[in-house]
């Protein structure tokens, strides 16, 4: 096994026992980035010198015995919509091409205090929008399993980087499955935590009521270690929830006897790829053999989730992105007649096509004539979706389904059809603020990974981790690595 | 629902965006397509349902009015596309 194939806890053991130097590891990952990321495109910014300097400092702390975190010395990367003080944060947009935040996101501060090494900033869709990977202003990013396939959408740089061994783990934001869908396509694990569990301070949001910062890791133990580091109340985020500290590694227990699992019929009938369906039903069999009680049930509101998502996310994006006016920060047009023209030209030149489409849609659903018909209606549907999940969780501990009804598709598949129904699998977790996780559960005939999606009730992360850990202990899917 | 050039221009004005004629046509088509999917929501009667504004209960959070760490003016101006005399620079707005 190569260094870049190892998990966070395996690397941590090597570092702690002085078999591996932090600088040596950092340099190995930098070399790998140089060697293969030209082909994958997972990074927008690589911090070679900073990372090596940081790794040397951390090594000193480890030698002195003052770096105690299991994440100490681990190379990690952050999506380019997470603010990093003094380091360019562009949201993969021309609008913020020259933006260097004067402050850091809380999650970055937390990871620094855990002595991790920031390798760079990851590629995303522009303002984490779009359902193809060609939506970054800078370059598309590709799937390490097969570079002719997409790595997934909107915030997939993290999944591509972790799958290719270009970072030990990654943080990125999830507003619609933005990290879970790429994790499914790239054969890694992504967790979108419960809304409010992880601070959003310093996340450049597009749809704040849907978005959470989550982790992308190689396996479930790594996921628990990272969640331990980034969780917690933050007074700088008004939507942060104070639940106290939970040690999520305590959920890493190989036992799901008696756990009740529901499989919504709506997610396994219809347009699901037969191989995906087979892998998911095979996972259900495995879970049943391990003592879980699995049954199908009906969740009719799922059919409406994608529509609700398009309305809410576009409405919030149109309002959130109003701040980009060419005055305080961001792109300013070179030529303009007056103030109004400055706004229009700066925004029209600074935003990419997909972002402008979403702003137009959002502005429309919020306009006074259509507010009730679309936006208000979506908020009411949001209530129905939340209620349907609360009801389901009276009976089930975890709801499982495919993360995406297909495996990674070919890069040239252009989105002629602007409405992507596949979001119905992942967006209910965003709409209802629930924790959602994607874990590898198989490969298709082309050798492309398939993801299993797990959802629990609010703050049920431990339940998800327990199920995923038990699944991992009894299968080998998480050990597959992209060969690149 | 039909989107005319006029509707797109109206929305663009509200959003402080401008588009070429070609882009307007493309946007009209995009809107028609996507709205046809969103209209699926009409199937459900939600007249009795309360809208969810926030998924977690939000309460006012109060704190003492104490000075905390803040940013330097120059630091906040660093990312401004145009600045001068410690201010953001904008085109003249008063005659």
UniProtKB/TrEMBL annotation, chain A:
Ranges for domain Amidase: 24-465
Entries under Gene3D superfamilies matching the protein: Amidase signature (AS) domain
Its EC number(s): 6.3.5.7
EC category: ligase
Cellular component, GO, one term: glutamyl-tRNA(Gln) amidotransferase complex
UniProt-annotated catalytic positions: 154, 178
Keywords: ATP-binding, Ligase, Nucleotide-binding, Protein biosynthesis, Transferase
Gene Ontology molecular function terms on file: ATP binding; glutaminyl-tRNA synthase (glutamine-hydrolyzing) activity; transferase activity
Reactions listed under catalytic activity: L-glutamyl-tRNA(Gln) + L-glutamine + ATP + H2O = L-glutaminyl-tRNA(Gln) + L-glutamate + ADP + phosphate + H(+)
Subunit structure: Heterotrimer of A, B and C subunits.
Name of protein: Glutamyl-tRNA(Gln) amidotransferase subunit A
Natural source organism: Acetivibrio saccincola
Primary gene name: gatA
UniProtKB/TrEMBL annotation, chain B:
Record's keyword annotation contains Plastid: no
GO biological process terms, semicolon-separated: glutaminyl-tRNAGln biosynthesis via transamidation; regulation of translational fidelity; translation
EC number(s) stated in the UniProt entry for this protein: 6.3.5.-
Keywords linked to the UniProt accession: ATP-binding, Ligase, Nucleotide-binding, Protein biosynthesis, Transferase
The keyword Transferase is annotated on this UniProt entry: yes
Swiss-Prot/TrEMBL catalytic activity: L-aspartyl-tRNA(Asn) + L-glutamine + ATP + H2O = L-asparaginyl-tRNA(Asn) + L-glutamate + ADP + phosphate + 2 H(+); L-glutamyl-tRNA(Gln) + L-glutamine + ATP + H2O = L-glutaminyl-tRNA(Gln) + L-glutamate + ADP + phosphate + H(+)
The protein's enzyme class: ligase
InterPro entries recorded: Asp/Glu-ADT_sf_sub_c (IPR036113), GatC (IPR003837)
GO molecular function: ATP binding; glutaminyl-tRNA synthase (glutamine-hydrolyzing) activity; transferase activity
Family per record: Belongs to the GatC family.
Stated role: Allows the formation of correctly charged Asn-tRNA(Asn) or Gln-tRNA(Gln) through the transamidation of misacylated Asp-tRNA(Asn) or Glu-tRNA(Gln) in organisms which lack either or both of asparaginyl-tRNA or glutaminyl-tRNA synthetases. The reaction takes place in the presence of glutamine and ATP through an activated phospho-Asp-tRNA(Asn) or phospho-Glu-tRNA(Gln).
Protein's name in the database: Aspartyl/glutamyl-tRNA(Asn/Gln) amidotransferase subunit C
Organism in which the protein naturally occurs: Acetivibrio saccincola
């Amino acid at each position: 096994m190569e260094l870049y194939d190892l998990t966070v806890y395996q690397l941590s053991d090597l570092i702690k026992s002085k078999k591996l130097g932090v600088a040596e590891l950092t340099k190995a990952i930098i070399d790998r980035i140089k060697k293969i990321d030209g082909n994958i495109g997972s990074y927008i910014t690589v911090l070679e010198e900073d990372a090596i300097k940081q790794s040397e400092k951390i090594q000193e702390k480890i030698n002195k015995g003052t770096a105690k975190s299991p994440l100490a010395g681990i190379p990690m990367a952050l999506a380019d919509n997470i603010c990093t003080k003094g380091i360019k944060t562009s949201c993969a947009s021309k609008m913020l091409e020259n933006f260097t935040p004067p402050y850091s996101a809380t999650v970055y501060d937390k990871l620094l205090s855990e002595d991790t090494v920031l390798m760079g900033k990851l590629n995303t869709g522009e303002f984490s929008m779009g359902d193809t990977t060609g939506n970054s202003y800078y370059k598309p990013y590709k799937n390490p399993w097969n570079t002719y396939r997409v790595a997934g959408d909107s915030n997939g740089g993290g999944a591509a980087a972790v799958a290719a061994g270009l970072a030990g783990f990654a943080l990125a934001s999830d507003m619609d499955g933005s990290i879970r869908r790429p994790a499914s396509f790239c054969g890694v694990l992504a967790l979108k935590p419960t809304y409010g569990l992880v601070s959003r301070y310093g996340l450049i949001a597009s749809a704040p009521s849907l978005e959470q910062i989550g982790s992308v890791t190689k396996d479930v133990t790594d996921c628990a270690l990272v969640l331990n580091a980034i969780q917690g109340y933050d007074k700088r985020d008004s939507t942060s929830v104070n639940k106290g500290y939970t040690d999520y590694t305590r959920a890493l227990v190989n036992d799901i006897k008696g756990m009740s699992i529901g499989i919504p019929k709506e997610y396994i009938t219809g347009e699901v790829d037969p191989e995906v369906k087979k892998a998911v039903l095979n996972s259900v069999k495995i879970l049943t053999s391990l003592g879980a009680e699995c049954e199908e049930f009906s969740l009719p509101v799922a059919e409406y989730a994608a529509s609700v998502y398009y309305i809410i996310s576009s409405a919030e994006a149109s309002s959130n992105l109003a701040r980009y006016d060419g005055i305080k920060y961001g792109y300013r047009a070179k030529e303009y007649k007056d103030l109004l023209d400055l706004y229009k030209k700066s925004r029209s030149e600074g935003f990419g096509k997909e972002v402008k489409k979403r702003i137009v849609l959002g502005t429309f659903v919020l306009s006074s004539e259509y507010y009730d018909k679309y936006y208000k209606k979506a908020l009411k549907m949001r209530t129905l979706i939340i209620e349907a999940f609360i009801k389901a969780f009276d009976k089930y501990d975890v709801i499982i389904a495919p993360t995406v009804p297909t495996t990674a598709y070919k890069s040239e598949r252009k989105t002629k059809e602007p409405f992507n129904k596949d979001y119905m699998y992942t967006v209910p977790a965003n709409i209802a603020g629930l924790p959602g996780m994607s874990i590898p559960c198989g490969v298709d005939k082309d050798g492309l990974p398939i993801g299993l999606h797990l959802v629990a009730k609010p703050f049920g992360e431990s339940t998800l981790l327990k199920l995923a850990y038990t699944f991992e202990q009894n299968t080998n899917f998480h050990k597959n690595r992209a060969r690149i | 629902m039909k989107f005319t050039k006029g509707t797109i221009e109206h929305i663009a004005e509200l959003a402080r965006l401008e588009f070429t004629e070609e882009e307007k046509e493309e946007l009209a088509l995009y809107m028609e397509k996507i709205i046809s999917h969103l209209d699926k929501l009409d199937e459900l009667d939600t007249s009795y349902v309360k809208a969810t504004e926030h998924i977690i209960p939000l309460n006012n959070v109060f704190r003492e009015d104490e000075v905390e760490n803040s940013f330097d003016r120059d630091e906040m101006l660093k990312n401004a596309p145009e600045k001068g005399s410690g201010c953001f620079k904008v085109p003249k707005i008063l005659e």
